[in-house]
Write a structure and sequence with these properties.
Mean pLDDT: 80
Shape: globular
Radius of gyration: 22 Å
Number of helices: 14
Strand content: under 5%
Helix content: 55-70%
Number of domains: 1
Structural class: mainly alpha
Low-confidence stretches: 1-63
Strand order of the largest sheet: 1-4
Distance between the termini: 27 Å
Length: 303
Amino acid sequence: MRVTLVSLLLCSLLTAIHCGGELGTEENPLPEDEEDTEENEEDTESEDEGNDPMNVFHDDGEGDVLTETHLRKLHSKLDHDKDGKVAMHEVLKFAHATRKAVAKKEIDSIFDEIESTKDGHLSLEEHLAESAEFHTGMTDEEKELAKKAETAKFRAADMDGDDKLDKDELVHMMHPETHPEVLELHTQEEMRKRDADKDGRLSKKEWEADATPGEHQDPDTHDPSADFHNLDENKDGFISIDELRHWESGKFHLEDAMNKLWDHADKDGDKHLHIDEFAQVADSLEGHDAHPHILDWVFHEDL
């Protein structure tokens, strides 16, 4: 999914969370605070190991790993009807609910940074002021269209119509996939910006002209041509608004990863994952498309 306006702030936040802490701390000092001594480096390294929230997944420095224990615990969370097996619809339901919960935590963490008046709400004026910083280099016409789109999304996210967003409403604004109307407006704006010939769909050339990696895709191995082929569900050679919405919502990447997981783990072919089937793929998940999704879920659930 393409990076939206305030999502850039979230990326910065997540980087700080996963990589050591805020500037000015011992984990991540300001340049003037750094001491170029081996002792200081050793102390910092030791503190980082103790404070890293992802340290539970570190296997002697070899990277993030998932164990059978992690997957057995996660299976109980995914198994909504408690019948001992997990269906695809249960995974997708869990993923949607978890995404909203994670997004809310992120908003709680950065709200004070983007809310300038400190009244506990984000006004339209504050949001447009933030948006304007990303419109440099645009023509006046493009700036006006972008402002119109951001205003429409703000109005849609404003559930109580009071012309300001509280933290819950801001989740919808920052994460369009959590609110159908905001997602629709976001998708329409993406189509408008990328549809050069204005025929209401994206050709392969239009797609590749502004292609960015989707969620959990490696920028180094990202293949826009393959994305286009896979997203073009009816194989008519174009990306429709419905197909683009599927991409922008993140569902395309999630469903693709989960389908690959089923192919890998569903040994008896019954279209469900039993707890042993799920647990037994722990050692072979690293590098699999499902790995980052499952790692996120295990981390969020503190398993």
